[in-house]
Amino acid sequence: MRKIRNNSNGISETVTVIIVIILVLGLALAVYGMLFGSVSLVKTSLVAASAGTANVPLDTSSSMQVMRVTPEVGENFYIKGQGTVPTNSAATQIAITSFSLRDPQGEIYPVTNGYITKNANKYGTNLYIYKNSASEYKVTDSLDSISYSPTTIRPFALGDYQITMIDNTAHVPLNIMNVKITGNATSSTTSQYSLPLLNVLPNSSWAMHGGVSNRTDPVTGLTLYDFDGTSGYLSSTTNPSLGFTGELTLSLWMNPTATGSSSSSANWHTIIGKGFVGGVNSENDNYQIMQLGDKLLFEWNDASSPYTHYQATTTSALTPGSLQYVTATVTGGVLSIQVNGVSLPLTYNTGNVPGGGTVISAPTVTLQNNGNDLLTGKQNAASAADYFYYSGDMSEVALYNRALTAEEIAHNINYYKI
Prior knowledge:
Elements (H helix, E strand, L loop, with lengths): L12 H24 L10 E11 L5 E12 L2 E3 L9 H4 L2 E8 L5 E6 L13 E6 L4 E4 L3 H4 L5 E2 L4 E9 L4 E10 L16 E2 L6 E4 L2 E5 L6 E6 L4 E4 L11 E9 L11 E12 L2 E11 L2 E7 L7 E6 L9 E8 L2 E6 L2 E2 L2 E5 L8 E2 L13 E3 L14 E10 L5 H11 L2
Parallel strand pairs: 3-4, 5-7
Antiparallel strand pairs: 1-2, 2-6, 4-5, 4-9, 6-7, 6-8, 9-10, 11-27, 12-15, 13-14, 14-27, 15-26, 16-21, 16-27, 17-18, 17-26, 18-19, 19-20, 20-24, 21-22, 22-23, 24-25
């Protein structure tokens, strides 16, 4: 037993050790400062994320398993190489993140950027890690960018992987997540949103003609196509499986240069279609959607009677000067056209002249497939008078072999555009 002294002038052993540690740390920081410059202590950001798998559709019958990372909640962060990273991120101590991947053999590989949009750092946005043809690991926030280049991706080896999300500002790991690649068709992603068969983006599958160019919109981060209205259009150089006979969704963002009266052919513009016009009452469309002034028109040839051509026209819906999200869906023989998620009333007629032919009640939609080219921004026609070039911007033009749900349409509106 040791006697306690109430007025001790000594220093306890514990305090002595603490003082020594402080002095050693101070000396180390001083030496570091002399050798490498000033010392700064960087705050570590907090980002909670989950991981799993997702299936990328390669065609109408096959898919490939990739990895999914979903930042769920936390502080502001950016992805390294993202175009919206602020120049003063280091000073403000915002996390600039990247990923590394450990494979089943224990080898660790860096994950570099694939196609990254402005929304990639938005909480709730899925990030996908895939392996390209050069055996490099890439990350993207768009499954579309993988699915429309199926020959450039490679399958993961089966087994257990570890994904590390790294804070490159503080140089520390933010999350370490485990993912198992099974190679089967079951995805651990609870919901699949944007999985089109085709998405129009600047790549080798599409050719640009005449007065059309593309740019990144600084507000939304979308890749916009600018059509001049006189010669610009896009054509698909590879379009297998783009003919539809059952369910269908056409979706896109559009900002027309002008609208005007729907009764004037000067205000008729082709958005996208797979068909051919030979003249009045001579048209063969698998599907086509057009702008008629401030209205939209969807037209098709009937599979049960291939020479019967139908048109469905909306009420006034379009306005120039802003992006609007347009969807046309066919499910169970029923057509629906929506703008910004709002379903529009439709009027139907036979024939291929808007407002002409016979006005009818809503027919059962059975699409007649054909071998015609798929064009965006121009109608495939025998006469130049029927080209109906589109004037304005378009983005995220996508085709699905199913009808998008209301939830999926709302998701696209929220995540394709801020």
